Amino acid sequence: MLIELLKIQIKKMANTNFPKQTFQFLKKLKTNNNRPWFTESKPKFELQVMQPALGFVEGFGELLSTRFPDIRYDTSRNGSGSMFRIYRDVRYSKDKSPYKTNLGFVFWTGEGSKKQSPAVYVHVGIEGIQVFGGQYWMTKTQLDNFREAIVQPSSGEQFVKIMDKLKKSGVEMVGGLHYKRVPRGFDAEHARAEWLKYTGLYVGMPGFSVEDTMAENFGERALKQAVLIKPLIEWLKKNI
């Protein structure tokens, strides 16, 4: 019963906008990245960050589903859902700051896990929001399939056309490059050899300012960016 009431509450507050207070809190967190401050500020965190964040998962997820029929999203707060946890894993990091100073959301496609499926990712930072899309990293099987699709004439040429069109549409960055050399077993002189160095493949669109995120049409503008990335997501779904 409690779970159903919570779902109804999230549904009511579903929204694609973030208030200015969300960014103000993240900015204060950057200056006060310690457990005592965060513990004392937990009520504000719930009101100014978590409520808008959960509403965003529902609201933007609904928008995405109008153009991505198999999109998946989840308002769970424990890290299994669309929203990444605010807590940092500091076990292998020199930076022992316990909290992230940004929010991350993933809206994934298909029946696989969110970390192993082509997806739309939204990064909410102190300066605003940026939309990404693609596959952050690939399993060994996915990577083998990706490389084979790159070197094949039909799928490889289609991929290049998609990436060229994305670059013309204003993509700010292409991520996933890992190797400095073409992997063993592939022709280093192949026309698409540079793409064989990637172990993930994702693109980032031009960011939105804090003011943009509070505009009435922000959700639709963010959706348009996600739709521009859709051909890449569909190519990855088909080929890996």
Quickly list its features.
single chain; 240 residues; alpha+beta; BirA Bifunctional Protein, domain 2; seven-stranded antiparallel sheet; 8 helices; 45% helix; globular
Please explain how this structure is put together.
The chain is of the alpha+beta class and 240 residues long. The chain has one domain: Protein of unknown function DUF1054 (BirA Bifunctional Protein, domain 2), CATH 3.30.930. It is 45% helix and 16% strand. The protein is built from eight helices and seven strands; from the N terminus they run H-H-H-H-E-E-E-E-H-H-E-E-E-H-H. Strands 1, 2, 3, 4, 5, 6 and 7 form a seven-stranded antiparallel β-sheet that branches. The protein is globular and about 60 Å long.
